[in-house]
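user: Please review this fold.
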Amino acid sequence: MRPLLQGENLSKRFGELLLFENISLTIFEGQKVALIARNGTGKSTLLNILVGKEGADSGKVTLTNDISLGYFEQIPNLNPFHTVLEEIFVTENEKIKTVKAFELAVSKNDQQKIAEISAKMDELGAWDFEVEIKQILTRLKITQFEQRVSELSGGQRKRLALAKVLINKPDLLILDEPTNHLDLDMIEWLEEYLDKTKSTLLMVTHDRYFLDRVCNEIIEMEDNQIYRYLGNYSYFLEKRNERIESQQAAVTKAKNLLRTEIEWMRRMPQARSHKAKYRINAFYDLKEKASQKNYDDTINLNVKSARMGSKIVEMENVSKSYPGVHLIENFTYKFSRAEKVGIIGDNGTGKSTFLNLLTQTIQPDSGNIEIGQTIKFGYYRQEGIEFAPGDRVIDAVNKIAEFISFEDGTKMSASQMLTHFLFPPDAQYNYIEKLSGGERRRLYLCTVLMQNPNFLILDEPTNDLDILTLNVLEDYLKSFSGCVVVVSHDRFFMDKIVDHLFVFEGDGKVTDFPGNYTIYRNKVEIELEKAKNEAKNKEPEKKVVKPNIQQVKTKLSFKEQREFELLGIEIEKLELEKTETENALNSGTLPHEELFRLSENLVKIKSLLDEKELRWLELSELA
């Protein structure tokens, strides 16, 4: 495989904070790689260095000549003065420029211009490209082409930036948390798109279903080391645990040996000057190995929740509308102790309004909401908390409490609590404004949970949190004795946590669905398939006449006749090879190297099959 991007011995430090040192990685053509690391270890910084937006303190980056690179950043760099259409088509590609001119003419209904540009579209063969661009924009719900970038919301800007990167079809695609601010339908579409794309992919994501379905390799960055795992997320977890257990065993063994060597060093000072110098050197090597981290720095979230009475939250015939928008109509529900509810629905259907009604931030137009006297809300908001300028990490926690109580009756100081949230003592006096997005989220989560709530409301809690933190948060929520209401686009998180769903269908309709997201999605797909089949059965049967080779021969050149005949044979062989490869991949018996090789081969087979089928159709239409 050809290497497209190489980082060699890269190091980066911000003041006294070391992000990574002497790490190396290579991205090969055709790979689809996920990068996993804890928050604050420099994932986004590493991506910026790899694409040339930031310099490393040491090391070098090599990008293979003549390849195009597309980079989707967490904070998009867009021109605020551009219209949406102008920003989408900032490119030197002539096809894309022509499609831009065509879309602009259509949006202005300029018939003369449409006719002129249509001729150029024919000449460049840009119609298929125009259809694909439209599909990307439609799926990402980008429709207001004349709107200024400065007028867009944060989520709209991220979708615009993502569309802009995808439309250019780069050879190497680098994505930093692409699923943030996408709804579930968009995420599922993006999954399918990236699975089929020919672009090589390097991606940072916390969405484990997305990672599982798109990537065929995982790179983990930990303790200035790069670990590669050829396989999906489940395989990564299994092999990571094996690695940690092995390292822990080695550290424990080194500590035991160190105790013996310390005794020897104390008892035998004369040995230091002559015969046992090798043993003295080995002692210092052993001391370094024994001092390595023993992977016990997980988050302990067993925070005590406030006592909960018999009445929790009762909603009766609640309705809420805004001018021209009907959000909630006659909604009635009585919450029970320890239930976990997920909220799903398209943007603008009333999810955030529902949370604000629950917490009485806003009042309903009609109906009643009664909150039990013992209920104490903990509200983790999507926009996060506004920390005071100049505050350090320890200040944010001390303002809430100097000591925190736990379910077993023990207490912990604010500093100890922060250590459990992966803020070691030397990091607790860092300024909050210098933290990464994920570290700020983790600190915010700490401030919410340490207030001892018994009714948790979580609005997109998974955004910017690393996967390892999410695992522990999920374990805590499953054992949480209070109520949980969560809005999330992370399907893995929803499946693991919730008992049932409130589905916001639009126009005020909210349905209570008994089951998690995957169960709900499967039900929707079955219903859609059923509706399709019913519609198909109602239509009069159309007789499809497949072009006959003998008929085609009369209208094709000799060369084209021969090509048409060979295509039929090649397509049949490729279909058979595709089926055999898929069966082998699904067998569960292949070693990981073979699994990776066959996965790559399947992508090539599908691509070749598409090309040959398209050519077969072109020739058949000449009949």
Q: What stands out?
A: Confidence is low (pLDDT under 50) at residues 295-299, 542-554. The longest helix spans residues 233-267. The first strand starts at residue 3 and ends at 14. The chain has 20 helices and 20 strands.
